Amino acid sequence: ETGVTQTPRHLVMGMTNKKSLKCEQHLGHNAMYWYKQSAKKPLELMFVYNFKEQTENNSVPSRFSPECPNSSHLFLHLHTLQPEDSALYLCASSPRVTYGYTFGSGTRLTVV
Amino acid sequence: QQPVQSPQAVILREGEDAVINCSSSKALYSVHWYRQKHGEAPVFLMILLKGGEQKGHEKISASFNEKKQQSSLYLTASQLSYSGTYFCGTEIGGAGGGNKLTFGTGTQLKVEL
């Protein structure tokens, strides 16, 4: 347990489904992040939230929609995904930007 | 643009030393180092913020050469628990760098008896 909890751990969804990934931290951190980790590829930054405000969208397709209702919770809403979106989605938090990240264990997503 | 890590993979016998390098084509504001074991979350090892700075974490240390835009991670007297994939994450300095951390492709390290 790292202090950052992600649910679900595994998710299989069809291309027409709508699902959401949840990330929760009670470390008192003010910055939260979504990263995508695909096989044989580096970790890809998707979104950054700082004090609940989105400060970075790394050209992510609109079928991924983030939501940060408060500094402790981060969601990633998914709809009409493609098979190439199958990957491990990692949430991370840090006390503020330019501090070390605490990662969650990730959600393994498979799009069929 | 992602930093380049070398080597891609390394196998060590317990007690041996290793160096992992991370190079960027852009000026760096900071460098992070993480280790990820199979099926687990990446774990933060250290962050380096100043040029020429060296930090240590048990028998793992790192240096940051701001002029050369590169960082090196040093693992001494390796232990079985050091096995995993090591990632560097770089934050670009100057205007537009912001808080965007870009990760390298990783170095797979395996320590054997």
Task: Please sum up the structure shown.
The complex is a heterodimer of chains A (112) and B (113). Chain A is mostly beta strands and 112 residues long.
Structure characterization notes:
- The complex is a heterodimer of chains A (about 110) and B (about 110).
- In chain A, about 0% of the residues lie in helices and about 55% in strands.
- Chain A contains no helices and 11 strands.
- Chain A has strands spanning about 5, 10-15, 20-25, 30-35, 45-50, 55, 65-70, 75-80, 85-95, 100-105, 105-110.
- Chain B starts with a strand and ends with a strand.
- By secondary structure, chain B is an all-beta fold.
- Chains A and B meet through strand 4, strand 5 and strand 10 of A and strand 4, strand 5, strand 9 and strand 10 of B.
List keywords for this structure.
heterodimer, A: 11 strands, globular, B: 113 residues, mainly beta, 6-stranded mixed β-sheet, 5-stranded antiparallel β-sheet
Distance between the termini of chain A: 29 Å
Count of helical stretches of chain B: 0
Shape descriptor of chain A: globular
* Series of secondary-structure elements of chain B, N-terminal to C-terminal: EEEEEEEEEEE
Number of beta strands of chain A? 11
The gyration radius over C-alpha positions of chain B equals: 14 Å
- How much of the residues of chain B is beta strand, in percent? over 45%
Low-pLDDT segments of chain A: none
Percent helix among the residues of chain B? under 10%
* Proportion in β-strands of chain A: over 45%
What is the distance, rounded to the nearest whole angstrom, between the alpha carbons of the first and last residues of chain B? 37 Å
Order of helices and strands of chain A: EEEEEEEEEEE
- SS-based structural class of chain A? mainly beta
Derived from helix and strand composition plus strand pairing, the structural class of chain B reads mainly beta
